[in-house]
Amino acid sequence: MSTKKIPHRLYLTEEQMPKQWYNLRADMKEQPDPIINPATGKPAAVEDLYPVFCEELAKQEMDDTTRYIDIPEEVQEMYKIYRPSPLCRAYNLEKALGTPAKIYYKFEGNNTSGSHKLNSAIAQAYYAKQQGITNLTTETGAGQWGTALSEACSYFGINLDIFMVKVSYNQKPFRKAIMETFGGKVIASPSDTTNAGRAILAEDPDNSGSLGCAISEAVEKAVTTENCKYVLGSVLNQVLLHQSIIGLEAKQAMEQLGEYPDVVIGCAGGGSNLGGLIAPFIQDKLTGKANPVIRAIEPASCPSFTRGKYAYDFCDTGKITPMAKMYTLGCTFKPSASHAGGLRYHGMSPILSKLYHDGYMEAEAVEQTKVFEAATMFAKLETILPAPESAHAIRGAIDEALRCKETGEEKTILFGLTGTGYFDMTAYMAFNEGKMADYIPTDEDLAPGFAALPKIPGIQE
Amino acid sequence: MSTKKIPHRLYLTEEQMPKQWYNLRADMKEQPDPIINPATGKPAAVEDLYPVFCEELAKQEMDDTTRYIDIPEEVQEMYKIYRPSPLCRAYNLEKALGTPAKIYYKFEGNNTSGSHKLNSAIAQAYYAKQQGITNLTTETGAGQWGTALSEACSYFGINLDIFMVKVSYNQKPFRKAIMETFGGKVIASPSDTTNAGRAILAEDPDNSGSLGCAISEAVEKAVTTENCKYVLGSVLNQVLLHQSIIGLEAKQAMEQLGEYPDVVIGCAGGGSNLGGLIAPFIQDKLTGKANPVIRAIEPASCPSFTRGKYAYDFCDTGKITPMAKMYTLGCTFKPSASHAGGLRYHGMSPILSKLYHDGYMEAEAVEQTKVFEAATMFAKLETILPAPESAHAIRGAIDEALRCKETGEEKTILFGLTGTGYFDMTAYMAFNEGKMADYIPTDEDLAPGFAALPKIPGIQE
Questions:
Q1: Do B151 and A9 touch (CB under 8 A)?
Q2: Where are the alpha helices (DSSP H) in A309-434?
Q3: Measured by CB atoms within 10 angstroms of the end CB, which terminus of chain A is less buried, N or C?
Q4: Architecture of domain A79-114+236-445
């Protein structure tokens, strides 16, 4: 380990920035199970994806052999406007906790989208532009992905329709406003603009929406609109590929400091940030170079890793997408309305699901009041108000650091701070006023066939 | 000039960060006129300030001889959590404008307060803590200063009462929420908690507030509360001192790139950012080392430089503070309710007023729809959604770059991007929907004795 003083924030130089993404699948001994066309029951071919996805992105989706994929020049140029993101040492947090652990975080919130989502949004908009696509559709939950994609589409001159989960749409008028500032068109989902939306509203006119439902609408809109494709900000293999820049930069910066993490912690919804952050560390595990603990932190109110089934399921509520083998709560699951922020997807990235299933990573579910306690503590000490999603990872890092305090272990912890909470003040207000509730799905809340899932250790047992 | 590729963002290393603030007054050939105690008509002594200000800050306020003042270790440590801020090259903006000019900006928004205000907030809270002060009061307009000071007080364990201009308080519930998250207590001003507030409400129960009024309330609260002092985020000499870190870092980063600005542009409300940004460049002018153009951009709806009188005036509406010689619209002036964001103070930093009066800098007033046009253009190109205040400087930089396009001059422009606009979405929504109005004060709007002020060139003439 280096003896020099470790700075509070380390930025790589522009020259040091990664010029290739890392494709984790190339190092996996066993591949995730293929996505399946539900009509045929057979694995989908890359061509099967072209009606929905941009071709280059569909190829990236299916590519499990190319270890490093060049980041196109124009994408690199855009990355340079807001990257590299800093690797930060949480000195104040360490001191306040009285832990012997060293806590690092990779901060992805220093851009107007407010999160890491811009890393993939730029790539996806770029490939769409290259293909001559003029229209994109997508969905957004908390709004970070929608904001990021609005920014990217604005830059590349692409029209964008965003289906925003209704509960977020209503709670976050300013999220909508920022997407509109960048030219995105925002539609509350479920909406009456698609068959999928109308079907859900017919059954339940007050349906407050879910990511799964918004995906159905966005996919339907894409395939029924001329020169239009669908893009997604999480879950997909291509997204994890683009997000690998987080982990690559983090690892490189730690190496520069003579550091290597004992524990890598990320929040998990669909897996975009987690998959990107942990990619090069999983590589070390897969290749036998190192063996850090990798830990996903997810909401107890949407606990796909810790309570889901590892099974083939639809990626959307309307069952119009292919099926993926993943940890899932069932495609009709939606988290309680009391659940704040993102991390509300019923399933989980197939890559991460496979790694978790094969024992390469752990997962832990936490309740949101505990998450906001961690968020508020962190904000006061480290001067960054975290997004509720990111605060799950903070909670995980604090818990790990407190365990180190008990055992005296001087572990090196790295966590992903994916974004900022400026558009989540309604949730912070609820927390400040003692009005925030915790909720754990009951058997009744779960999709048919998903009842009697395992209990969450430490919370339900 | 260096031939190497200039990066999009340059961060100094932690070791390169300034360890001293620069006190511009030490190099001024003629000093700003002293502040005057209105009761005696005589210049105030440093002791006269102690009932209101922390002692060390009062000393800094009066110190016009010490050129460099050490930044205390603990303040340096806090700076390192969010600094150095990047010097950015606006390549995309240059390209979109088709200008031969090079556009640089110093971005101060990468911290949760969302602006440069944290630079002085930390210093002021630190000195209060050192003196054993347990309570502080302040005012805030747009909310950036209140947020910054809440963060700083939370860190140093000081209670804070924030008088927030009522129109902002009502428009920005989330600004209030973030201050409360950091433990600040927020009161809409004018309030019924002070004599000053009650007097204003008695005359006009619907008074929507002004910075001048909020200052009266905060000062009154400070002098009537035990172990309580008043702090201010702009206008004062001490604030410009602390903010000099912006200019010092910017100049150092430009030197590292082999660059020097031909034009330095900053937005101006009370002068905190502008005074900090331009300090080392004004030094070059004062000492004959260089002669860059220095330009303040202010709102046409609150045009103290371009339409104000250079005269002694109260710093607050309630006339309980000392009087300062400054460009002022009269201490009872308040901008139209249609004016969005900050930059709403009736006066201007006495240091900047003197420099302007003596011809060391220029000033320009711009209308807010033009400002939001610039803001939106910048956001789309540079992926940062600017605060309305900061967007005044963007407007100035764009206008300068467009002049360069006409003349073919390859000027190097540096502007200050003070903060982000995440809490200003109401204003962006008004702009997006075509509902934003411009307003220029009429003679009737001006304070008694301030009618028939000069017209704004290019707007009123």
A1: no
A2: 350-357, 368-382, 388-407, 425-432
A3: C
A4: 3-Layer(aba) Sandwich (3.40)
